[in-house]
Design brief:
- This protein is mainly alpha-helical and 202 residues long.
- It is 40% helix and 4% strand.
- The protein has one domain.
- A two-stranded antiparallel ribbon has the order 1-2.
- A hairpin with a 4-residue loop joins strand 1 and strand 2.
- It starts with 7 loop residues before the first helix and ends in a 7-residue tail after the last helix.
Length: 202
């Protein structure tokens, strides 16, 4: 039956059927998008840790380390230096030992800034968006040339990473804040994100 030979009622019925079919397709597409968003959100607990001051203070794009919950520039005009270990005369290990000190100076083995290519800021003092941070973490040229398995190992065993959950007390004797997710939960979130395909939010 051609369109011209149809009655008005038949034409209306055909249009309604097509509209309902299109509606089902649109609903299915929307549900698919929601599923994708749900998958992408598995990165959220990881991002919450990485943008906390314990991590971001050293993963900064500035030529100086940051410190404190307000992420202010390091006291005493400390500079990054050519190898991310501080400038001559103010090397990181001149104050920061392999463990926290009783006077409030934090410490862990190989205390240093993350290299500039591993910065997690979009501009000085401002963290990358969740999606940009995710993509930066996966980029071999910005993550120390680590694949996902090596990243998991790094996050689980690197002493400087582990320090974030045992940061000791500050110069005023107050306990430093730890990341908002416990270390084991953080590792579980990373494993879950990796198992889900390591997808990044938009």
């Amino acid at each position: 039956m051609t369109w011209r030979s149809m009655t008005w009622r038949q034409r209306t019925s055909r249009l309604v059927t097509r509209c309902l079919r299109l509606r089902r397709l649109l609903v299915a597409a929307a549900l698919g998008s929601l599923t994708a968003c749900s998958t992408d959100s598995t990165f959220s607990p990881i991002a919450r840790v990485l943008v906390s001051p314990r991590c971001l203070n050293c993963h900064t794009m500035t030529y100086f380390p940051r410190q404190g919950e307000d992420r202010h520039p390091h006291l005493f005009l400390v500079a990054r230096g050519p190898e991310d270990h501080g400038a001559v005369g103010k090397r990181c290990n001149e104050c920061h030992q392999t463990q926290n000190q009783g006077n409030g100076v934090p410490g862990a083995p190989n205390w240093r800034l993350a290299p500039l290519q591993m910065a997690w800021e979009s501009e000085p003092g401002k963290a990358l968006s969740e999606g940009a941070l995710c993509r930066r973490l996966l980029d071999l040229s910005h993550n120390g040339h680590r694949n996902l398995e090596q990243l998991a190992e790094h996050l689980a065993t690197e002493r400087l990473v582990l320090w974030a959950w045992a940061p000791g007390r500050n110069l005023d004797g107050e306990q430093r804040a730890t990341p908002p997710v416990e270390h084991e939960q953080f590792l579980q979130a990373f494993r879950g994100w990796r198992a889900a395909g390591a997808r990044c939010p938009p």
